[in-house]
Amino acid sequence: MATDLRRGGPRPGRWRVRGAPYAFLLPAVALFALFFALPIGYALYLSLRKVEVKGLGLGSGARQEVWAGLSNYTAALSDSELLSSALRVLGYGAIVVPSMLGLALVLALMLDAERTRLGGFSRLAIFLPYAVPGVIAALMWGFLYLPDVSPFHYLLDRAGLPAPDLLDGGPLYVALANIALWGGTGFNMIVIYTSLRSIPVEIYEAARLDGASQLQTALRIKIPIVAPSLVLTFFFSIIATLQVFSEPTTLKPLTNSLSTTWSPLMKVYQDAFVKNDIYSAAATSVVIAVITLVLSFGFLKTVGSRSNRGETQ
C-alpha cells in the first residue's frame, strides 16, 4: 500500500470523496424517478393502449388490453367537449391572470412605499389566503355566492338593491376568478415584493435627488427592475390556469351552470373515474401536458428574445 501511495496510486478515501455528491443526490433522484418520471412513463404507456371487447364482454378473456397506437390521441384532439373546456379555461384565464398580476404588483408597490404602516401585518394578511386549501376556499366562497345563505345577498336585499346570481351564466366566470384571485394574489405579491426589497437603496436616493416622485420611481425604476419577477409570476399563473380543477369541481354541486367537463382536467377525471376509460384519459392528460409545455416554453422564448433585443439596442 505504501508503494501505491509513493507511485501516486488512488487513495482508499478518494473514491468515497468522489462518490459523496452522488450519494447525496441519490434520494432526490430516487424520489424524482418514483413519483414523477415513472407516473409519466406509465401514462404514456396507457395512452397507447385500449381495451378490446369480444362478444358480449362476459367471461374471462372477453376484455383484453391491446395496442391502440395513436387512436386515443386522435380521439382526444377531435373531442368537442375537450375543445369547449379549453375555450372556457381560456376565457377564465383572460380574467384571472391580468387581474391577479396587476393586483399583486399594486399591493407590492404599496407595501414597498416609504410611508407604509403595519407592513408585516399587511403582508401576512394578504399572503394568508394562499395557505388555505383550494377546496376549502371554493366551499367558503360557494356558500357566500348562494342567495339563500349569503350575507351579501341579505344586505343587498335589505338595501333594496338587486343581487346578481354569480353561479349562473356569465357571472360564473367572475365567481371562479374571484376564488383564484383571493387565493393566489398573496403568493405573487410576495414574489414581487421580495424582488423590490432587493433593489439597492442608492438607486432610490439618486432618483430622489433628481426630483422623481414616488409614482415616477415606481413606474420608471421599480417596475422595470422587477420585470423578471413579473415574468415568473405570469408563467406560474398560466400553468395554474390551465390546470384549474378544484374550484369548478367543488362548486359543481351548487349550480347547474357548471358541467362535469367544464375544464380539461375535469374531462380527464370524468373519463378516468366515471367512464372507467383510463386509456383515453391518459391520452388527454398527455395532450394537456404537451400544450402546457409548448405555451410555457413559447412564452419564455418570446420574453427571452425580446430582452436580448433590448440589451443589444
Structure description:
This protein is mainly alpha-helical and 313 residues long. It folds into 2 domains: 11-67, no CATH class; 79-276, MetI-like (MetI-like fold, Orthogonal Bundle), CATH 1.10.3720.10. The chain is built from 14 helices and 2 strands. It has helices spanning 2-6, 12-47, 71-77, 80-111, 119-127, 134-145, 151-158, 171-197, 201-209, 214-225, 227-242, 246-251, 264-274, 278-312; strands spanning 49-53, 63-67. Strands 1-2 form a two-stranded antiparallel ribbon. Helix 4 runs antiparallel to helix 11. It is globular, with a radius of gyration of 27 Å. It starts with a helix and ends with a helix. The model is unreliable at 1-5 (pLDDT under 50).
Could you list some keywords that capture this structure?
disordered N terminus; MetI-like fold; mainly alpha; single chain; 2 domains; 313 residues
Q: Kindly, what is the distance between the CA atoms of the first and last residues, rounded to a whole number of angstroms?
A: 64 Å
Largest beta sheet: strand ordering: 1-2
Question: Are there runs of 5+ residues with pLDDT below 50, and where?
Answer: 1-5
Q: How many structural domains are formed by the residues?
A: 2
- Could you name the CATH topology of the largest domain? MetI-like fold
| Residue share in β-strands | under 5%
User: SSE order in H/E notation?
Assistant: HHEEHHHHHHHHHHHH
CATH architecture of the largest domain: Orthogonal Bundle
Task: Write down the CATH class of the largest domain.
Answer: Mainly Alpha
Overall mean pLDDT: 86
Radius of gyration: 27 Å
- Give the helix/strand class: mainly alpha
Number of helices: 14
Helix amount: over 70%
Number of distinct beta strands: 2
